[in-house]
Amino acid sequence: MNTIIHKADTRGKADFGWLKSFHTFSFGSYHNPERVHFGALRVLNDDTVAAAMGFGKHPHDNMEIISIPLEGDLEHKDSMGNTAVIKQGDIQVMSAGTGIFHSEYNRNKDQQTKFLQIWVFPNQRNVAPRYDQKTLNLADRQNNLQLVLSSEPSPNAVWIHQDARFYLGKFDKDFSVKHTLKSEQHGVYAFILSGDWNINGTVLASRDGIGLSQTSEISVTALSDQAEILLMEVPMLI
Asked: Which of 3, 81, 223, 229 is most buried, most CB within 10 Å of its CB?
């Protein structure tokens, strides 16, 4: 089994005043040749957007872009005509494909917004751009790994053009589960949202990350009460 560990304080950082962002992988002005991607997982940004601020219209292409709000609201507008608000408990996906423009703003004038911005390399290039979002049932992740993203359309999860699976969990202290990978060609990147965890014998704290590959199963155990985690299973070959 291969293991890589990214402690929270080793991440890249950007501070623009209105935006504070921590980069697990190389992004923008932060470049670390040893931290460019984990298999098909290309970007994992931990963003905080100040009240009434946001990202102006900008382009993307040939990338699967996932947003997971952690606090506050984020308004999305794009060149396909979509206007939507995502909030804590939602998940949003955008297949950029042949090209798309979009903007994202914190619509609150008195509250910051926190969200994860995640990019995954697609398994098909130049697909028609698409947008989707879902409101998740938070109860389904209590002491369970709730599937929130997959490679197939689902009523309870968004889907992307990649053989990937994302799970969110919120565990009681000492609760433990094992996750079996779909393929030996896959790996899992675990990102700690809150609390302390034991992942395959490694103790991790809030905003730490660990990537595990060349294994068929991983074990996750919460070491504190109501600890939260995001698991991202992705192909390692791209």
From this structure: 229
